[in-house]
Design a protein that fits this description.
Number of strands: 0
Shape: globular
Order of helices and strands: HHHHHHHH
Number of helices: 8
Structural class: mainly alpha
Distance between the termini: 30 Å
Largest sheet: none
């Protein structure tokens, strides 16, 4: 539950100031000053994988894979998708409640709308990555270390592109990672509790 505590602490920092804290301003300034056409194009390609079809396909396939040994693929896929959607809804409710303004529009290197905290792309990518890892854990896959490296790298990269493209503060991205971690941790804890209940 430490992720929940960090989310709460970050919320206090963000809500109390509303504007950027020093690390936010420093990361934003660095990003704006270190842009070139190739890097921006690459960042846009990476950032777009954090929303839309890609996370949903990954989570759907992960759910099918997790439920395959007992022919429960469809049920697991529905559960995994439900977890992703519920996590996104939680993130959205936090975003509306905090209503933190984004960085200056003049610094945007891609499209963005609504409020800033926590980052939606970051949260969604981290949720999807975590659910794929969960599927591999359920199946006891030998590829888990490689998957952790690839999926973790992807989730981190998506978050950092949001800062580099100027549409989020660094603490928005940290908030997205923490919200996803807290949500996945809570879901995993609930499933373990349910699995340990004696059957009547």
């Amino acid at each position: 539950m430490s992720a929940v505590a960090f989310v709460a602490l970050l919320l206090v920092v963000v809500v109390s100031g509303r504007g950027p804290v020093p690390p936010d301003a420093a990361a934003h300034t660095w990003s704006v000053e270190h842009r070139n056409h190739g890097a921006v194009l690459t960042a846009r390609l990476v950032t777009h994988t954090g929303t839309g079809l890609v996370p949903y396909v990954l989570v759907l396939l992960a759910g099918l894979y997790a439920g395959r040994p007992r022919d429960r693929g469809l049920a697991c896929a529905a559960g995994f998708l439900g977890c992703l959607i519920a996590g996104q809804l939680t993130r959205y409710l936090v975003m509306v409640a905090v209503a933190r303004p984004r960085p200056p529009v003049a610094d945007f290197a891609t499209d963005a709308s609504r409020w800033s905290f926590p980052s939606g792309h970051t949260t969604t990518a981290a949720l999807a990555a975590g659910l794929v890892v969960a599927a591999l854990l359920i199946r006891g896959s030998r590829r888990l270390p490689l998957a952790l490296a690839l999926l973790g790298g992807w989730a981190v990269a998506v978050g950092l592109t949001r800062v580099y493209l100027g549409v989020h503060w660094l603490t928005d991205v940290l908030g997205g990672w923490l919200v996803a971690t807290a949500w996945l941790g809570g879901a995993g804890w609930a499933l373990l509790r349910a699995g340990r209940r004696p059957r009547e």
